[in-house]
Structures are given as structure tokens and as C-alpha cells.
Amino acid sequence: QVQLVESGGGLVQPGGSMRLSCAASGSIFMITTMGWYRQAPGKQRELVATITRGGSPNYAEFANGRFTISRDNAKNTVYLQMNTLKPEDTAVYYCNADIKLQLSPSYNYWGQGTQVTVSS
Predict the structure, then answer these.
(1) CA torsion angle for 110, 21, 85, 113 (degrees, to 10)?
(2) In angstroms, rounded to a whole number, what is the distance separating the alpha carbons of residues 119 and 15?
(3) Looking at 1-120, which runs of residues are DSSP E strands?
(4) Per-residue model confidence (pLDDT) at position 69
(5) What residues does 117 pair with on adjacent strands?
């Protein structure tokens, strides 16, 4: 069984920074792409950023220049550093990963989500 557990959400003032973490656990053979998505109230879930196993990032336009995705393959963990946060960044942020278990194909997994609220 695989679990993705996010941490680091909360309340931050506009212009502030926040770092999210997501750790994968279980009988993991290998994790390929990891990423972050978000869903604001009344809106569809959208891509924030993804990162390949080799460390190549891909960002949504709104995240470029403000957010940085990184990962630690040894810890099966992905991070999202968010700077210059805006009220419109308020959303539930979800971790996502393509994970291959021993003797099985790769499957896509989601974390439970962590709330990020940007407000004064």
C-alpha cells in the first residue's frame, strides 16, 4: 500500500512564503514524475508544477518565477517552495506521483491535500 502525506499548509499573509512537503511511503520500487496540483473552491483542480525523477521541472504559468518544485529521491519526497503568495493562491494543494511497486506496473497516486490560505 502506498501513501502520499502532505505537510506544510496553513495561513500566510499576502507576499509571504510557504513550503509544502509530500512524502511517499510503502513498498515503493521507483517513483517517476512527482507533482503538485491545487483546487480552489468552485474551481477545477489544476496543475501547479511537476518534476521528473531526473529533476526537470515543469510549471504552470502562474507558478513560474514564484514557485519552485524540488525532490529528494532518497527520501521519496517532493517539495513546493511558494514565494510572493497572493490571495488567489488560496486552495487545497495536492501531491501527485507515478509510483511503481515491486513486480507491478506504475500507478498514479494522490495525497489527501493540504489547505493553503493566503489572507491578511
Answers:
(1) 30
(2) 10
(3) 3-7, 10-12, 18-25, 28-39, 46-51, 57-59, 67-72, 77-82, 91-101, 106-110, 114-118
(4) 98
(5) 11
Task: Give the number of other CB atoms < 10 A from CB of residue 69.
Answer: 22
Closest CA to 80 of 98, 58, 102, 100: 58
Q: How confident is the model at residue 102 (pLDDT cuts 50, 70, 90)?
A: confident
Angstrom distance (rounded) from CA 106 to CA 120 = 42
73-82 pLDDT, tens digit per residue, is 999 999 999 9
Q: How far is CA 111 from the centre of its chain?
A: 9
pLDDT at 13: 98
The pLDDT assigned to 92 comes to: 98
Residue 51 near residue 78, CB atoms below 8 Å: yes
Contact indicator for 19, 82 with CB cutoff of 8 Å? yes
